[in-house]
Write a structure and sequence with these properties.
about 5% strand
């Protein structure tokens, strides 16, 4: 490096790129990864066949037994199949809620923060371009 050379390498564009990254994104990603790991460890053991009925957790077999405990004969067989089908749908819905709960910070990051950062960056880039264009146009008669 030549100490007598002009300092043109540190142009405003490069400074803009470095200063526009506040580090919030990295902290948020670390928080999101910790959230996903902790919530996965907390929710995964009950993920397989657990469903929520009237605010309490129960297994699919417990739900079927509870639903059809009072029935006897042919009605009991059809009740068991219907309860199993209904319980399977409820388990799938509960699993979907669990996945959304675990992945919520990452989805929020992808759906809210990244588009917002992209839009802000585009606005800043456009204002820098128009500001430079006006200065160049003002110098020429």
């Amino acid at each position: 490096m030549n100490p007598a050379a002009p300092e043109w390498r540190g142009s405003g564009v490069r400074k803009h790129d470095v200063s526009s990254d506040p580090g919030l994104s990295r902290y948020f990603l670390v928080l999101a990864v910790v959230w996903v790991v902790v919530m996965t460890l907390r929710i995964y053991p009950q993920f397989a066949d657990t469903l929520r009925i009237e605010g309490r957790l129960t297994t699919l077999s417990g739900y079927v037994d509870e639903s059809c405990a009072q029935r006897i004969g042919p009605a009991a067989m059809s009740c068991r199949q219907e309860a199993l089908d209904t319980g399977s749908r409820l388990v799938a819905r509960e699993q979907g809620k669990s996945v959304l709960l675990v992945e919520a910070p990452l989805l929020g990051y992808l759906l809210a923060y990244l588009p917002l950062r992209w839009a802000i960056g585009r606005i800043k880039e456009r204002s820098l371009r128009t500001g430079k264009g006006m200065a160049v146009g003002a110098d020429t008669p």
